[in-house]
Amino acid sequence: MTGTVPRDTGGPSFAEHEVIERIEAFRRRRPRLRDEIVTMAHGAGGKASAALVDAVFVESFRNDELDQLGDGAVLATPRGERLAFSTDSFVVQPLRFPGGSIGHLAVHGTVNDLAMAGARPAWLSAAFVIEEGFPIVQLREIVADMAAAAAGAGVRIVTGDTKVVPTGAADGLFVTTAGVGVVPAGRAFSAAAVRPGDRVLLSGFMGDHGTAVMLARGDLDIDADVASDTAAVSELVEAMVAAAPATRWLRDPTRGGVGTVCNELAQASGLGVVLDERSLPIRPVVNGACELLGIDPLYVANEGKFVAVLDPGEADAALAAVRAHPLGADAALIGEVTDAIGATVALRTGFGGTRIVDMLVGDPLPRIC
Predict the structure, then answer these.
(1) Is 127 helix (H, G, I), strand (E, B) or coil?
(2) CA dist., res. 39 & res. 218, Å (int)
(3) Which of 3-17, 50-64, 278-292 has the lowest mean pLDDT?
(4) Where is each PurM-like N-terminal domain found (predicted)?
(5) Residue 15 has pLDDT above 70, yes or no
(6) Structural domain ending residue among the three candidates 123, 152, 184
(7) Poorest-pLDDT segment among 16-30, 73-87, 189-203
(8) For position 292, what pLDDT does the model report?
(9) Vertex 220, ends 219 and 226: CA angle to 5°?
(10) What is the CATH number of the domain that holds 97?
(11) Average pLDDT for residues 268-277, to the nearest whole number?
(12) 170-174 average pLDDT score
C-alpha cells in the first residue's frame, strides 16, 4: 500500500478527516482470533500473535500489570521499591548458529526484556525441556554459553528446573528463562509518555539475527557471512538514559522486527511513526539476502538491539552516548512521532514516496528465537 504522509498544507478537509477517522477506527481494533487451531503464524509476533494473546491469555488472566503488555511487568513492593519481572521461552533451530546459540539467546532475551522495562537486571531462573537422546556434551556447551552470557550481563542464574521428554517431543532442547530486575527510582518508560515530535532511535543494524539463523539452517543456497547480534543491551540502555533522562519508551525488536515494534508503539500511543528509509541501518549482505527471499528487513528479528523514543531535545545526546558504546556504534535516528497520520507507521522511501508499514502478517522466518 502506498500513499503520502501529510505535510503542513493547511490541514485536511472535513471529508479527509472523516476518511482518516474511519481508517484509524479500523486500525485501532485489536485483531480478532478466528482460528480453530494454533498455527506457526501465532508465534511470529504479528497480528496472529496479538490475536492469540489477547483472546486467550489476556482475557483469562486480565489484571492491571498484564494489561500493559510490555516486555516485562513492573511491580511495586510493599516497601515502595519497583521490580521488573519477565519470562521467555526459546525454541530456535539450529541450536547453535553464527554468533551465538540457544544458550546465549535464553539469557540475553530475558535480560533485554528487563532493560526495556527500565530495570537493571539482577537474577534469572532457567528451565530446560530436554529430549531423550540429547547429547550430554552438547548440553554442557549450551549451559556454558548461558553461564558466560550471564556473567557478561552481570546477572546470576539462581534457580531452575529440568524435564526430560520422549524422543521427538522437544526438537532437541527448549529453554525457558525468567528474570527479575530493579527499576531505579523515578524511571518510567511508557507509550503514554510519547509526544508528537519525539525522535525514534535504533541502536544498530537491523535484521542480523533472523538472517543469520535463516542461513544457518542450510535450506537456502545463499553463501553469506552473517552473524547473530545476540547481546545484552542493559549497559547500553543505561548509557543512553544517562544522556537522555527523559527517554519515553523502549522495546527490543525481536519477533516481527522494527516494523512490528513501531506498530505496537503506534497502537499503544495513538500516534503515528514516520520512518526514513535512508536512515535505517542495515548491512548490505542482510539487505541482499532479504531481497533474494522477498522478505522486508523491517520485519526480521534482532536479539541485541532496541528501539527508543526520545525527547527531541535529548535525541542527539542520546545518539552520541549510544554510538560511544561498542554495541551501539551503528546506531541511528530513524524517524519521528507525529499526530498527522493517526496510529499508523509510514516509511519515507529513498525515491521520495511513502508506504504504510503494517503489522506483520504470517511467519516469514519461523523459529528464530
Answers:
(1) strand
(2) 23
(3) 3-17
(4) 71-183
(5) no
(6) 184
(7) 16-30
(8) 87
(9) 105
(10) 3.30.1330.10
(11) 97
(12) 93
pLDDT at 67: 65
Segments of 99-236 assigned E as strands: 100-101, 120-131, 156-165, 173-182, 199-202
Same-domain check for residues 141 and 194? no
* pLDDT over 50 (residue 2): no
Residue closest to 198 by CA, chosen among 266, 138, 137: 266
Share of the chain above pLDDT 90, in %: 68
Asked if residue 316 and residue 209 are part of one domain, the reply reads: yes
- For residue 198, which of 346, 306, 314 has the smallest C-alpha distance? 314
User: Span 67-83, mean pLDDT?
Assistant: 79
Sign of the alpha-carbon torsion through 232, 234, 236, 237: positive
Which pairs count as long-range contacts for 350-354, CB under 8 Å and 24+ apart, including other chains? 350/277, 350/278, 353/2, 353/4, 354/2, 354/3, 354/4, 354/5
The tens digit of pLDDT for each residue in 326-357 reads 999 999 999 999 999 999 999 999 888 999 99
CB 152 within 8 A of CB 223: no
Residue 69: predicted pLDDT: 63
Residue 298 is classified by DSSP as: G
**Chain centre to alpha carbon of residue 123:** 21
CA nearest neighbour of 294 among 202, 222, 216, 217: 222
Domain interval for residue 266: 13-23+188-356
Give which of 363, 369, 365, 364 is closest to 38, Cα–Cα.
363
Q: Which of 122, 157, 184 is the last residue of a domain?
A: 184
Pairing status of strand 199-202 against strand 332-338 = antiparallel
**Rounded to an integer, what is the distance from CA 199 to the centroid of its chain?**
18
